[in-house]
TrEMBL record:
PANTHER family: GUANINE NUCLEOTIDE EXCHANGE FACTOR SUBUNIT RIC1, RAB6A-GEF COMPLEX PARTNER PROTEIN 1. The keyword Membrane applies. It comes from Remersonia thermophila. This is RIC1 C-terminal alpha solenoid region domain-containing protein. Keywords: Membrane. Residues 58-70 have a biased composition (Low complexity). It comes from the Eukaryota.
Amino acid sequence: MYWPLGTPRIYATSSSRQPGPAHTVSHDGLPLRPQQPEQRPDGASLLSPKPPGASSAPLTPLTPITPLTPGIKPVERDYTDDEDEDEDDGVGAPPGRGPTDLPLNEPILALKVARAGHIFAVITATTLTVWQTKPTVVLAVVVRSKASLDAYGTNTNLLLRPDSAILVLHTSLGFLITYTLATDPDARIYRPHFPNHTNVQRRRQSHAGEPGQAAPDQILWGPGEGSGVRDVSIRFRMVIKVDAGIESVLALDDELVVATRKPAAVQCIRWTPDSSGSQTSTELLSRMGWLEKRVTVKEMTHDRPMNLSTWVTSDGRAYAVQRLPRAQGGDGSNEPAGAKRLFKGYCFHAPQSEQDRAVRCVVNARFSLIAVGCADGTIRVYSAKDYSGNIPPSHVHVLPASLSTTGQLTALVYSPDGYCLFAGFEKGWATWSVYGKLLSNTFHADHAVAATHGEEWVSGVRDAAWVGGSGDLLMTARAHEAVWLLEMARSAVTGCYSPANLFRTVLQSTSSIMVYRGYDLPDLTSISAEPALWHTTRIPPGYLWNQWPIRCTAISADGRYVAVAGRRGLAHYSVNSGRWKTFTNDVLENEFQVRGGMCWYQNILVAAVEANRSFELRLYSRESALDGTVAYTQPMPAPVVLITVTGEDSLLAYTYDNLLYHYVFTPGPPGGSIRLIEVGHIAFHGIVRSPARVRGLSWILPDHQLLEGDPTQDVAHASVLFLVDGKLVLLRPSFAEGNLKYDMRVIAHNVEYYLNMRDRPYTHEAGPPRLIPGPDGSGSSGALDDSLWIFDGVELKAWSDMDTVMKTISGEEASRELPALVPVPIDFYPLSVVLPKAIVLGVEPDLIQRRDISFSFFRFSIRTHLFLPDILRFHLAANRSAEALQLAQQYEHLEYFPHGLEILLHHVLDEEVDANPPPTPEHAMLPRVLSLLSSFKQYLDIVVQCTRKTEVRSWRTLFAYLPPPQELFEESLQRGSLKTAGGYLLVLHTFDELATASEQGVRLLSRAMQEEDWDLCKELARFLAALDESGETLRQAMELAKARLGGDEGPLGRNGFAATSSRLEIPGASTFPSLVRGLGVIQGSDSGVSEGRSATASDAGSFRSDM
């Protein structure tokens, strides 16, 4: 659901040797005067035993004077060309300020982002740089002095406390250097000042808000940059020496976790002492019974939402670890370290070979997954079901290239919403959807072009992190001093799971939305890959200044309106008029926050909001200004998890107190607006354990209740679908002793999204809810209107009739086994199922590299797949020919319907030809397919088109179940399909029926000349010439054709025929290959590609597409 967009922006502290921003030189607690090596301070060694006679108090280096924030002037000032720059030579520099320039061309070694995402920090071997995310500017640079580098070693890794208050440097000599980061919430820097601004400029600036209240510098800001640049200060805190050797370090909210080498142990160092005065606690790995013997911890990660850590040990195993409560751990200061129990864990990944050894681990809290990157580059994902070690394998992310092409795994990180996994490698990077569908990669890029243009982000990644609510991706290269910021486009479903977002494809990026508009276009136009099918609009800059990032996007069922919501407030847009509506009053905009999603009912926007610590459903009319009164407000007793529109006039709202509310839209009093009326609710206590984990919801009403039932009783008859993490759960109502109960069944796993076709919005294009009534009058047999589609990260699957599934769960069917799913294999990520057009719609990114431009960029193209052949084949394989015929008749009106049947025939024929042993006639699929095809008028064309695109060895198998080619040739002539008859003429020739082929060739030539189809005449002439190199056969055919047509005095009479025959010269033997191409035989060609010719009846199914 994520795709890279455009080309990344590049940021670096400096790209030249010219004077750059001021920076701080830190001695990290060392005296300014050089000392002898034997007098060098040891720092505070908290892990090694103290020498005899040493003081009990830890040795803490001196804290220097707080350095000024480099490159930042906390006051507004004007810069002029004649300003004195005395600080460049270090004269008069404040304490801590160094006279040297900022080191250049040092590659970035590590990248860390704060939990809030507002800042990030990077290190090189000698520097520490703190950046602000929006706007992306340097806030502070710390350059370690030569004395510090000699004493403590160069930087190797960076730790950032989640609240960004403390930074920790891990050095090559085993030291941990800590810094504090202080921020002034009111101070702003880098503020432009215009001393001679005019009234025109002031009027332009007033468009950002109310007249006279706009900040005069907002004309320079972009998305999320309205708050300006913060003023920060870095202060050295202390140095920690670890004599035991550092294997890995993890910074948490309360403590710093250090894994040591000798002895192998894990030590927890609190940022501040606890009530007992203790600041450290240690547990040896040898005392942890759940770990293997003689191992060390190579990597540690922690996920706060799940309160779960992962450890990767030196033997390649991966563990899920939890910190024990301090009371249980017994961390008294006078207790031996070996008696303390600080952690408990479970091994969930044990390598079976060297290639399976774990290298990286990352936790996906949204879907309860743990991804393990292995030595061979494969990413194995496990499902964390509980905290007792029940972590079974879930799926595997397969690399799109070999290990020699990708290199070793270097970075592994999930997007904040959990829908996308990014993996960086030594020679490129790749992204997958949460359950394993490959989205994008750079392994097939031209590295020579990338190296020429200096685009190291294409050729390899050292570290990466998500920022901007999953809207941007930060990357660092393996040997480069820059940070790249790559914009990502993602589906609106990731932020707002609603039927309209699933049935109408909408993509959102950092500053724009893209709406696919091919649903209402003709069939062949809607499946094209033209960029014009996308309607792209930029979100108003005035809204993005302060409310970036966009967290929620919702489109209306008819595709006319789109709404977006950021940190606070909302805005909506009309696709037809191209106009946005936003709040002009900042107070009203910042008064509420959208929590629980949005959806559209006709031209009414429904938003679940939190305002002043209360929770509401608000209705906004598209026709009214947002600053006006809200159309209707429905108070809610608890926060809303999600809302969705169902049926013609119903709204479902699911809340955190595990209640599902059913509302009905009703007109208000005369002259008033629409309002909501609650007609029922359902409590799911004891059924849904965690409402926060519910991602999607819908319900299915029986037909009798939908048509004739009381809406107040809908909650008692509805079957409810919940999407919890990756599990699709169906609740079937039943009454026992007068009480309402639910039969619960998990019907699918690893579900990224599902599509309930009963939720399909009613539009003129979609038609009525029931297209074709079934034999039992239910209207659900074979028409797919009651189908349920799921995507599991591998392929799209569907139940063609949900009634059978629900009866199975409730025990009405003899078998308790769920019906089989229809597989629809696809090679791109599906975004929507367009039922009226029988296609699956998706997008696919492409990395464009050209030598005439100096940068590479991503663009995505529309992909479509015709699902009709897959479902027809499934019905035929199950001996449900009647359902297959009914389904095919439903789509007979499509222009590409013959092409769909041709694909079905082609795939079945290839499988039966390659089958060993071949299937018996009773079990063969080919006769069933041909029987289905014979029900349609395009039958003869489809068969001959299939012969054009298959090898000659397959023809015998195909015509074993067909009438003789002679009969098919005659029938084609009777129908007037001359090109189709020409195809069967080739079959006659291939089957060594030379006499028949010559005779029928003459008949066809005469008919073609009579109908003035000169292209066919030319190809037939070549065909007859190829039968006899002497040309005698062609001469005889011309004479016979002359005899047939000689009596006519029309355009093909004596004079007309002479003029025509003069052009039909006898070709040489070398023209035989063109004969084969001309009459349509393509040896071994793909079934999805055909030549471009003039449109005829026989060519109705031959078009080029991505299906």
